[in-house]
Amino acid sequence: MASPGSRTKTTDVWSLPEDEQRIGQRISEALPRSGWLCSHPGPKGLHQVHLHRQLGEALGCGGRQAFLLLPDGAQAPEDVLVDDAVAPRSDIRHSAVVQFLRSRRLQDGEGEVFEAGRLAVRWFEQEVGPKRHQLLTEESSLVWKALRAATRPAIVENAQGRRISGMRIGLAAHDLVTGSGMLLTRGGIQRLHLGAEPPADQKRDRLEPRSAARWTGDGRSRQW
């Protein structure tokens, strides 16, 4: 359950390292002063956290996830080492965090499956005020626009033939899945097949895709 007053958006994403580089580059172009915090396993303080310029660098330093601070150019926490390529502003404190979670290739009784990662953002509207809320909404829109530019729609089908849309898949990940017939998962036991894309005239480029990505402030969105 989302906390009361929180603004959240989540999109499931299947990606390989090549796709992560492409997604990160697009986001860096959209938010030129942005940086990504690496994330390490274990208790806070066990590992040094860095603010990296690129998503791929942060994932390579940390592990499965990285975090982008908003607004663009927001100051990193005091205990973070800032890369020379990042130029945060000392007068802007971060009000929102964008999470990029890596996909995983897993083995189960049916063979290898591809588990989705995600792109997600969250902030608390009542804490940031109307002007900052508007800025975070605009910059989050730029992040999702960059995601769409770097990936393609992922329309999947479950075992009953029901189609689910609103997710994204990287170009390299798409080639892997279509070439191997690998099953997909969004977590849990359900297995999915990657379906064919609709004709171009039926595609809709929206800020809030159906089913898997939406803004919400009503406490019903997925959380990380």
In short:
This protein has 224 residues and is of the alpha+beta class. The protein has helices at 17-30, 55-61, 125-150, 171-180; strands at 6-14, 36-38, 50-52, 65-70, 81-82, 96-101, 104-108, 111-115, 117-124, 151-157, 163-170, 183-185, 193-194.
Describe this protein with a few key phrases:
ten-stranded mixed β-sheet, 13 strands, 25% helix, globular, disordered C terminus
Describe it.
The protein has 224 residues and is of the alpha+beta class. Helices cover 25% and strands 30% of the residues. The chain contains four helices and 13 strands. It has helices at residues 17-30, 55-61, 125-150, 171-180, and strands at residues 6-14, 36-38, 50-52, 65-70, 81-82, 96-101, 104-108, 111-115, 117-124, 151-157, 163-170, 183-185, 193-194. A ten-stranded mixed β-sheet has the order 5-3-2-4-6-9-1-11-10-13. It has a three-stranded mixed β-sheet with strand order 7-8-12, with no helix packed on it. A hairpin with a 5-residue loop joins strand 10 (151-157) and strand 11. The longest helix is centred in the middle third of the chain and has 26 residues, at 125-150. The protein is globular, with a radius of gyration of 18 Å.
